[in-house]
Amino acid sequence: MNDRHLYSDTITQADIFSGLEEGELSHIFARGYKNAYPPGTILFHEGDPAATCYLVLTGRLKLTKLHEEGKEFLVRYVPPGQVAAAIALFAGKNYPVTAQVIDRAEIIGWDRNTMMNLLLSHPQLTVNMMRVVIERLEELQRRHLELHAERAEQRIARALLRIMNQSGRKTEEGILIDFRLSRQDLANYTGTTLYTVSRTLSSWEKQGWIASGRERIVVIDPHALMLFAERD
What we know:
232 residues; alpha+beta; Jelly Rolls; Arc Repressor Mutant, subunit A; 6-stranded antiparallel sheet; 4-stranded antiparallel sheet; 9 helices; 10 strands; 26% strand
């Protein structure tokens, strides 16, 4: 069966599947197991043995990590077409984060042995997976530099642009971040406080850069946010 009838082009054209033939996609998808999960479901906890990696088909995951003092740090969101837990799976270690479903999601999982066999059977998948792992490491390095070298307001601007690029949907108002994003989530994601996020978003609303409501943000002027994020 043609997998492009089973999965959207967003999935079959994702970076991890770049250059793969439809027959290869059929084999890869058939070796995984697909499940639907309601919001709030925990796929795995930080510290659990890394037994499975996951591809998000629909919905979204939130990856979080606990600081030593018990405060939650939001590492990143995983939108459709992206993989979670690949690095931990390959390393054969424990999951470094907790993965929680934030929208009703359909997700395919592959256990470690299955994924290793797939990588041996499909060299292009191996190349793609290596590229994805490198991109994740580079993203973590950029986030680390942002946390230590930029002002909180710049980090908030970069976070909104990053999330907008991953999960933005054009509307009459602007580009809607197409999932529920609370100000506390944004504070956790940028390593700042709820007060700072609220003050910053209120300022940008007055300037006409964004519009926000309860767990809803529309980016009206992405260029203004980009210029602000790059400001010395």
